[in-house]
Each structure stands twice: as C-alpha cells, then as structure tokens.
C-alpha cells in the first residue's frame, strides 16, 4: 500500500482475514478532509477493530488551540472508515471517546458481524476518492432544494443539524466571515502558522495544502473577501495528482514536476517574505509571472526583475482584487453545520456528519469548501451564533455549489499512519 490516490474504490475480498480487510479499509479513511490537510490521525489495527487516534503533533496551536478542527478531521476519517466497512458488508459498532484516561483515543470501531450494506453506503463509498475541497467560485446553477433537504435530513439524523443560511442571515454570516478574515490576516502568528502548512518544504511529507491551492485569508487583498483563488502556479489537469509523488513518478522526474506544480520561490515569497507586497496589484502580477516562468522552466528568481511572459496559466493569479460581492455571488449555498453541545464528543460527531454531507453531496455532483475563519476566530463564531439565532453551536461553515473537477490533494501513505496493535 502506498500514498497514491485511488481512482476508484474496491471492496476487499471477503476470503481475506478480517484484519487484512480492515487494513485495506483504512486506506480509504486516510482520504478524509482535514483542517489544512494536517491529517491529524493515526489508526491502530486489531484483529477485528480499528482505533482512531488523534495525532497532537499535527495540531494548529494558533488557529485551532482547543483541537476542534483536529477532532472534526478525525471524525471525518472515522466516518470514511465506517462507510467503507459498511459498504464491504461489515456490521460495525463504534465506541466514541472510550477511555477518559487516554483522550487521544477518539474512537474504536469494532466489526460485530456481516450484513448487506444499506442502499446509500456503496454510493458514499464510491464518492470517497472523488471528493475534494473546491475553493473556487461555483457556477450560478442553483442547488436543488430536494438535495439540500436530503443533506439537512442526513445531518439531523446524525445529531448535527445543518442550517442553510439565507436572506438577511446570509448577509450577516458573510459580514462575520469577512471580519474574521481581517482579524486572522492581521495576526502574524496566524500567518506564520498558515505559511507552515502551505510551505512547499512539506512536499515530501505529503502534508499541508499545495501552494497553488493557497487561497486563505492571509493572502486576500485589503478589505475584500476574495474567494480563495489566488493561484500561484498552474493547476494540474483534473484527475492528475497535485504532486508528482501522487502519480508514482520517481527521482528526477518527481523533482521537476514538483517544482513546476508548486514553485518554491513563489510560495515562500508569498507566504513569508513579502506578504503585503503580494497583496498589491503589482505583487499579484509579479506572482503570476513567477508562476508562469517557473512552470515554463525559465527560472526567474523571486525578487528579480521579470521579463514579460505569456499569460498561459490555466488558473492565473488575479490582476486586481475581485469584487466585494464575490463570496456572495460565488456561493450558491452557504450552510452551517451545528451541534447542540460544544465538547469533544460534539466535535467528533460534527466531523462524522460533515464527512457524510460532503460525500452525499458529491454523489449528486455537489462540491464544497469551508469558511473556517468564522469558526476559528472565537468572537466571530459567537457573533455568527447570535446573528443566525442558533440554539446550537456552529461547527463548520460550508460553501456548496457546482464546478468542474480538481486534482486531489496529497495524502500520507497508510504505512505512515497505521500501526498493528
Ligand atoms: C474541519 C475542517 C476545517 C477546514 N477548514 C478549511 C478552511 O477554513 N479553509 C479551507 O480552504 N479549507 C478548509 N478545510 C479543507 C482542508 O483544507 C482540506 O480538506 C485539505 O486541504 C485536504 O484537501 P481535500 O479536502 O481536497 O482532500 C477544512 C477541512 C476540515 C475537515
């Protein structure tokens, strides 16, 4: 088993020992979404069980000091594992937070029998390798109310209600997300932490977000809430991996491709050295030229005077900041996933439900991305709760809509995440 992203899913053969079947299923759990792609989970394999552990070494001390996002991410991995097991005709029982003396042990999934899967399980399972976070502008197509109802029912049945935010509430939500955005952007500690998770030095680790997907608050211009589309390098074609190592390429071939897809100078320049300059129109243009020249192998060094270049990136950095309204126009649906409580059990539950919503949406070609600012900034989260008249606690803010496919984001190999217990 390696780090590659499966094109499709296959159910492990039933004549294998159960432990081996479970090992194969963990290979799908590792594809779950996680905050900053930190993949903060570990799996411990037993003869008929899998334990899901949090990995505190991947915690985000600034953006997620309480571990909410970390626990939600592990919840998503747990749900992927459960869905994979059920689609493989295995009946499961899950003990959540089973041992108060070992808080990092988040759940133990036990196989207790065999039964044909429920109708939706194989669909959700098939959607696992096809799901991605899609941060760009969504098309203007309205999301069908029936699908939204399905998602709402699904969330409700899991104990984590999903609120579709409309009208005046939507306006207030956007306002608070923007305020949170500004607050994070103004915090050097936040920017440094974000930089660490988009640092191309992490390429070898297969952790973090590829630089050309970096579209977080810290690089957004002025008072404007641009959608996260500050591309710093040409995006790979749909279906191609984001990194060379995802394709199984090796050696020099990998080096070259990695450099092309994720130009180190650009990302470092962007995130660490020259953030403010890059927020200007001139900075955006410089970034675009760097990205193009890197991709074309002409190797213009960061900071060097740049010759004019052709404008042939598939997604180029914007020439000027986008409208204030872009978040509004580019998000056919804004939704908030909530839970009645706000403790670790609630976060785990929210992550499990989130995973099911994302997969169920994907079955119907719906894409999603996150507005984490509104949750990560405590004052914004409180203001959103009040502005939306929520009794529950907001856990995840989602944009939902339709768009084209994207390449997957790298994941660690299962061997780096799984131990035999
Ligand atoms: C709890 C949680 C919070 C997230 N918050 C954000 C966010 O604020 N902004 C963002 O762009 N992506 C966010 N993401 C998406 C992750 O960055 C994404 O899952 C990760 O990069 C892996 O990419 P993939 O989802 O395309 O597989 C979040 C994901 C999770 C599970």
Could you write a compact summary of the structure shown?
This protein is α+β, with helices and mostly antiparallel strands and 421 residues long. Helix content is 38%, strand content 13%. The strands form two sheets. A five-stranded mixed sheet has the order 3-4-2-1-9, with helices on one face. It has a four-stranded antiparallel sheet with strand order 5-6-8-7, sandwiched between helices.
Number of helices: 14
Distinct compounds present = flavin mononucleotide
Uncertain parts: 215-283, 285-324
CATH H-level homologous superfamily name of the largest domain: NADH Oxidase
- Computed CA radius of gyration, to the nearest angstrom: 21 Å
Number of domains: 3
**Largest sheet features:** 5 strands, mixed
Distance between the termini: 18 Å
Shape: globular
Strand order of the largest sheet: 3-4-2-1-9
Question: If you consult CATH, what is the topology of the largest domain?
Answer: NADH Oxidase
Series of H and E elements: HEEHEEHHEHHHHHHHEHEHHEE
CATH architecture of the largest domain: 3-Layer(aba) Sandwich
Provide a descriptive summary of the structure in words.
There is one protein chain. The longest helix has 20 residues, at 68-87. Helices cover 38% and strands 13% of the residues. The protein has three domains: 18-131 and 407-420, NADH Oxidase; 145-175 and 328-401, NADH Oxidase (3-Layer(aba) Sandwich); 189-295, no CATH class. It starts with 17 loop residues before the first helix and ends with a strand. It is of the alpha+beta class and 421 residues long. The strands form two sheets. Strands 3-4-2-1-9 form a five-stranded mixed β-sheet, covered by helices on one side.
């Amino acid at each position: 088993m390696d780090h590659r992203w499966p094109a499709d899913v296959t159910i492990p053969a039933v004549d294998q020992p159960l432990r081996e079947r479970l090992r194969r299923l963990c290979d799908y759990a590792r594809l779950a979404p996680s905050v900053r792609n930190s993949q903060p989970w570990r799996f411990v394999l037993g003869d008929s069980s899998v334990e899901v552990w949090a990995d505190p070494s991947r915690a985000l001390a600034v953006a997620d000091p309480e571990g909410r996002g970390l626990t939600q991410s592990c919840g998503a991995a747990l749900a992927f594992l459960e869905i994979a097991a059920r689609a493989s005709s295995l009946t499961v029982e899950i003990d959540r937070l089973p041992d108060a003396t070992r808080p990092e042990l988040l759940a133990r999934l036990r196989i207790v029998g065999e039964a044909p899967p429920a109708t939706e399980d194989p669909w959700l399972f098939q959607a696992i390798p096809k799901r991605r976070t899609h941060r760009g502008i969504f098309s203007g197509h309205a999301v069908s109310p029936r699908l939204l109802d399905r998602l709402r029912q699904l969330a409700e049945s899991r104990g984590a209600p999903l609120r579709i935010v409309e009208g005046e509430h939507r306006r207030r939500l956007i306002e608070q997300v923007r305020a949170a955005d500004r607050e994070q952007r103004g915090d050097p500690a936040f920017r440094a932490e974000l930089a660490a998770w988009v640092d191309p030095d992490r390429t070898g680790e297969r952790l973090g977000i590829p630089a050309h997907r970096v579209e977080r608050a810290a690089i957004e211009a002025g008072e404007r809430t641009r959608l996260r589309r500050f591309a710093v390098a040409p995006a790979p074609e749909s279906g191609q991996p984001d990194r060379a190592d995802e394709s199984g390429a090796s050696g020099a071939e990998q080096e070259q491709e990695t450099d092309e897809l994720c130009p180190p100078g650009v990302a470092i320049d962007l995130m660490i050295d020259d953030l403010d300059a890059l927020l200007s129109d001139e900075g955006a243009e410089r970034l675009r030229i760097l990205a193009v020249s890197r991709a074309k192998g002409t190797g213009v060094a960061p900071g060097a005077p740049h010759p004019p270049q052709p404008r042939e990136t598939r997604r180029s950095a914007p020439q000027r900041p986008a409208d204030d309204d872009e978040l509004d126009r580019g998000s056919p649906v804004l939704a908030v996933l909530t839970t009645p409580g706000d403790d670790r059990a609630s976060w785990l539950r929210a992550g499990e439900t989130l995973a099911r919503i994302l997969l169920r949406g994907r079955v119907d070609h719906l894409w999603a991305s996150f507005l984490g600012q509104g949750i990560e900034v405590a004052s914004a989260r409180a203001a959103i709760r009040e502005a939306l008249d929520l009794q529950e606690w907001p856990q995840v803010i989602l944009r939902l809509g339709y768009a084209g496919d994207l390449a997957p984001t790298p994941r660690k190999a299962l061997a780096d995440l799984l131990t035999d217990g």
